[in-house]
């Protein structure tokens, strides 16, 4: 058996594919960000006010995922900080730290003070944060990344508090950079938060295929050994990612996963077949991740769809609702309304897990015809993994 392990290791050790795979990982921060010059310039000129010790306007950054928002923001702050020491900055990803408690605790910890994981009141945390911020006697730029995810779950209270914070600080001043992947999300914000964050707005448009190709080429040189990847393959990855709303992360994932498959199989160059397989693998991971992290009732609805489709070729919202209701009842869980189930079906349609087509049934009015958009196996796996309650339901 151990020769299997030897084989795997030897493929990696003697990789004829990667020179340095880490250049293709999502967390790598590049030293150059081609095609984002305009956004970088605008952000830098707003933030450069710190040179005169003036508080920069707050900045609201928006654009779809993979358009370089996080990378460009980190790039500007890092490089500005190297040249100026009149300010500090800290970066918080509010998808990971997604409650008021975690966000305030994160700020305090990044300013160098430990905080218990739970147990303090948010009022107490807020007081500690103010004290810690004041101790710095500087301008502090706080980046709140992916605020759409946080606000959707917990509302915008903490954002509101942060936009008002300067009235309570004496020696230090705070300037905010809020980043969102969801462009429409702004409309759900408290108008006061919206106007305060939106003092300056920077939009990150999707990359087109040509720009992606350029970005990929530069990185591929660093990541792959010579002659592993041709310009044609890079164009192919760029074109695929451009179709997928110009997402650079997707483009890098394609290159990396295609390389990994080639490496695993002991090949020394990347062909379009590997890119194809990479695309399928990535799509599976994406779908799995979405399903696995759905809220409980959304999972129940999806389970109802699967159950219903085991003896019908498509389902109406009413049929799904009935199965959902019985399932919820069988585990003594209160049902949500049919209206809400219909919304959930729309959400599942938007992320590409089901198709929900509106059909007109004459005098019976309109209904939706629901079907699966991805394989049943991947849905079941996503639903049941790490979820004992659902696994129990499924096995009954
Ligand atoms: N112009 C660019 N040049 C080089 N790499 C880029 C560029 N734009 C994005 N990337 C890379 O693509 C990935 C996604 O970018 P990111 O900043 O995380 O996007 P967003 O925050 O908008 O979702 C990251 O690995 C980033 O380094
Ligand atoms: Mg980001």
TrEMBL record:
ATP binds at residues 67-71, 207, 219. PANTHER family: CELL DIVISION CONTROL PROTEIN 6 HOMOLOG (PTHR10763:SF26), CELL DIVISION CONTROL PROTEIN 6-RELATED (PTHR10763). GO terms for biological process: cell division; DNA replication. The keyword ATP-binding applies. Keywords: ATP-binding, Cell cycle, Cell division, DNA replication, Nucleotide-binding. Involved in regulation of DNA replication. This is ORC1-type DNA replication protein. Residues 55-208 form the AAA+ ATPase domain. NCBIfam families: orc1/cdc6 family replication initiation protein. Residues 302-383 form the Cdc6 C-terminal domain. One of its GO terms (molecular function) is ATP binding. Belongs to the CDC6/cdc18 family. It comes from the Archaea.
């Amino acid at each position: 058996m151990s020769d299997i392990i030897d084989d795997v290791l030897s493929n990696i050790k003697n990789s004829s594919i990667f020179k340095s795979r880490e250049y293709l990982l999502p967390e790598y921060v590049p030293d150059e960000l081609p095609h984002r010059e305009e956004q970088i310039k605008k952000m830098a000129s707003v933030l450069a006010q710190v040179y005169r010790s003036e508080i920069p306007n707050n900045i609201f950054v928006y654009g779809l995922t993979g358009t370089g928002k996080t990378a460009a923001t980190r790039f500007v702050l890092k490089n500005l900080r190297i040249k100026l020491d009149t300010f500090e900055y800290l970066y918080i990803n509010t998808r990971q730290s997604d409650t008021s408690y975690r966000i305030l605790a994160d700020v305090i910890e990044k300013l160098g003070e430990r905080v218990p994981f739970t147990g303090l009141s948010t009022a107490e945390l807020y007081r500690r944060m103010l004290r810690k911020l004041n101790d710095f006697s500087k301008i502090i730029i706080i980046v709140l990344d992916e605020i759409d995810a946080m606000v959707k779950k917990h509302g915008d209270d903490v954002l509101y508090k942060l936009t008002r914070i300067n009235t309570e600080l004496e020696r230090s001043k705070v300037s905010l950079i809020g980043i969102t992947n969801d462009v429409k999300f702004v409309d759900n914000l408290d108008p006061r938060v919206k106007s305060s964050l939106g003092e300056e707005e920077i939009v990150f448009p999707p990359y087109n295929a040509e720009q992606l190709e350029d970005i990929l080429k530069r990185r591929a040189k660093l990541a792959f050994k010579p002659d592993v990847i041709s310009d044609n393959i890079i164009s192919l990855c760029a074109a695929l990612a451009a179709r997928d709303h110009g997402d650079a992360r997707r483009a890098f994932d394609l290159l990396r996963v295609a390389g990994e498959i080639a490496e695993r199989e002991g090949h020394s160059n990347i062909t379009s077949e590997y890119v194809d397989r990479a695309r399928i693998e990535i799509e599976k991971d994406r779908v799995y991740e979405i399903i696995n992290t759905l809220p409980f009732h959304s999972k129940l609805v999806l389970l109802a769809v699967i159950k219903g489709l085991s003896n019908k070729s498509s389902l109406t919202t009413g049929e799904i609702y009935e199965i959902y209701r019985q399932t919820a009842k069988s585990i003594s869980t209160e049902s949500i309304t049919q209206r809400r189930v219909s919304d959930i079906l729309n959400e599942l349609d938007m992320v590409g897990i089901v198709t929900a087509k509106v059909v007109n049934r004459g005098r019976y009015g309109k209904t939706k015809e629901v079907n699966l958009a991805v394989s049943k196996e991947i849905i079941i796996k996503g639903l049941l993994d790490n979820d004992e309650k659902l696994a129990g339901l499924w096995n009954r």
